[in-house]
Design brief:
two-stranded parallel ribbon, binds S-adenosylmethionine, 8-stranded mixed sheet, C5_meth_CS, 2 domains, DNA Methylase, Chain A, domain 2, Rossmann fold, alpha/beta
Length: 406
């Protein structure tokens, strides 16, 4: 039996949806505005065979729609229900990861307005929830959403207040949602990546203290025997190389072809680095794992102009990934040499799009866009499916009867 009916807002390429399917839910609707994300979602969640998982996806295509209620032409929750043939009250869980750019440090310096969050998409997300008031809400965002503002208000506080005060018409007790917003590290739930994110779970009718996160399953140094060791880059990538499913030594600019028994993998393609980049990678490897290790060496000439004179900032840029740790946070630029610690642990190339997807806990056959920028964007934007699965596996939200909405 399905654990519950989910609608995924800001669905991207489907990382969160896949986690729900892996945990046994029925994903009955999904909406995003971006064509490449929608196409990737469709190929992997609507058109592919998901029989190996306990859950399912019940529609042929996610919906293209603008969820920003402050802009004209946006879609309402009623419209979403109609598009996916859902009855009012049928949805058990609304999942949503409104994009996080607005919580960046840049916006943090501007004054905080009274009573209003500045973030239109967070605000729109709350209004979409208000139109359905499902049994549970799943929320994911950057860690910065919990940042203190003038010592008191935070975006997360605003979200909590809205959810706690959101009551159903047929609830004389006006209980509202119990809310737990927690900053978690995806590595602590078995994802091969150190990714700090704010995850929110809201359950209608519960008190805040009743809304609990499942215990972490992994730790850097597990002591009590109850947890496993963090999953490392080596655990994931070496396994693929050793099984012969992925080639480690790709030629620059080439994709993987010709492995016996496995289809060619267009997503396992290396960026075409120029010779100066390759020489810089080699130089960094000779002295350590970051451009900073070049300081004071005979290879100092490889330090980029923009880093000369820098002290502690941007240490991860041009960095080499460590086999023995989970990957660093993969961003929407996670195959770019200059954007972080994204150089392969042994090869003089950055990680491929396939390697990035594996480090995000996507299955090995997850199809990615052909365009480099789109491939790394959908991967870097995703919520790791393994994280979602671990967190929602034990939420008990399915109702026997659809709830009537006036
Ligand atoms: C953080 S990503 C979501 C990732 C997704 N949950 C996953 O796990 O793969 C945010 C998504 O919001 C979408 N988005 C941004 N603005 C939007 C809007 N106005 N309406 C609908 N979707 C929007 C982006 O295209 C992006 O795919």
């Amino acid at each position: 039996m399905s654990r519950g009916v989910v609608v995924d807002l800001f669905c991207g390429a489907g990382g969160a949806s896949l986690g729900f399917v892996q945990a046994g839910y029925t994903v009955a609707g999904a909406v995003d505005i971006n064509d490449e994300a929608l196409e990737t979602y469709k190929r992997n969640l609507c058109d592919a065979d998901l029989d190996e998982y306990p859950g399912e996806v019940t529609f042929d295509s996610p919906l293209k729609g603008n969820l920003n209620a402050n802009k004209g032409g946006h879609v309402t929750f009623e419209y979403i229900r109609n598009e996916f043939g859902l009855e009012p009250g049928e949805v058990d869980v609304i999942a949503g990861c409104p994009p996080c750019q607005n919580f960046s440090k840049l916006r943090d310096t501007t004054p905080w307005p009274e009573d209003e969050p500045k973030d239109e998409l967070l605000q729109s997300y709350v209004e979409l929830i208000r139109a359905e008031k499902p049994g549970a809400v799943f929320f994911e965002n950057v860690q910065g959403i919990t940042n203190k503002r003038d010592g008191e208000t935070t975006y997360s506080q605003w979200f909590k207040d809205q959810m706690r005060g959101m009551t159903r018409d047929d609830d004389p007790e006006e209980k509202g949602y119990g809310v737990n917003l927690k900053v978690v590290n995806a590595a602590d739930y078995g994802v091969p990546q150190r990714r700090m994110r704010t995850i929110g779970i809201c359950i209608y009718g519960a008190s805040d203290s009743e809304v609990e996160f499942p215990p972490e399953t992994h730790a850097r140094e597990p002591e009590d025997g109850l947890k496993e060791r963090w999953v490392t880059v080596k655990d994931v990538l070496k396994e693929e190389y050793e099984r012969g499913r992925l080639k480690q030594d790709l030629d620059l600019g080439q994709k993987q072809v010709g492995i016996d028994g496995y289809p060619d993998d267009p997503a396992h393609r290396s960026r075409r680095h120029n010779s100066n980049t390759v020489e810089t990678m080699k130089a960094i490897r000779r002295h350590g794992d970051s451009w900073k290790d070049l300081r004071g060496t005979e290879d100092e000439e490889f330090i980029r102009e923009c880093h000369r004179g820098f002290d502690t900032q941007a240490g991860a840029a041009y960095g080499i990934m460590d086999w023995e740790s989970p990957a660093p946070t993969l961003t929407t630029r996670c195959t770019n040499f200059s954007s972080g610690r994204y150089t392969h642990p042994e090869e003089n190339r950055t990680i491929t799009f396939r390697e990035a997807a594996l480090l995000m806990s996507f299955p090995a056959d997850f199809k990615l866009p052909d365009k480099n920028s789109a491939a790394e964007r959908v991967v870097g934007n995703a919520v790791p499916p393994q994280l979602v699965k671990s967190i929602v596996e034990d939420l008990n939200v399915a109702r026997k009867e659809p709830r009537k909405i006036a």
